[in-house]
Amino acid sequence: xxxxxxxxYVVVGAGTAGSVLAARLSEDGGARVLLLEAGGSEVPxxxxxxxxxxxxPGTSSDWGDRTTGQAxxxxxxxxxxxxxxxxxxxxxxxxxxxxxxxxxxxWAAGGAKGLASYFHPVGTCRLGTDEGAVVDExxxxxGIEGLRVADASVMPSIVSGNTNATVYAVAERAAEFVSRxxx
Length: 183
Prior knowledge:
- Belongs to the GMC oxidoreductase family.
- The chain has helices at 16-26, 101-109, 163-181, and strands spanning 9-12, 33-36.
- By secondary structure, the chain is mainly alpha-helical.
- The protein folds into two domains: 9-91, no CATH class; 101-181, no CATH class.
- The chain has a two-stranded parallel ribbon with strand order 1-2.
- Helix 1 links the parallel strand 1 and strand 2 (33-36).
- The mean pLDDT is 80.
């Protein structure tokens, strides 16, 4: 007869949010965390290959959801939703879509302050002096000593004419900083 196992936390859904939540909760070595996900343990061979994502909807890794009939055609549209480890993130070609600023502002107004800071590890390497910036004015990555980013991603916007000009300018400045002060 097997013994009952007790957990401090049970997280249902091993998609992006559930996996992050379970990982954070388990950082406390004393917490017992169970992460549950529907679907089997086997995944289609296309899953780890981002260009193969169009073959994943309609497989056992997809719930098979459909929308209601659309306004102009009356036809439902397939709504790919991942089923299995990784959830929908496992079948969406590694596409990351950040919501509109107004959504986060509204959540902050309702008391959920600081959510935008969680984009720091996955966002561009935005330059700035505020806590949301990834690199400082000398291209040093905040929190990682000795690392600089010389990339167009530090710029808040890229010129539309010669996009490489921004990269050249950033690289020139990075060379100045590194040669003057060391990495």
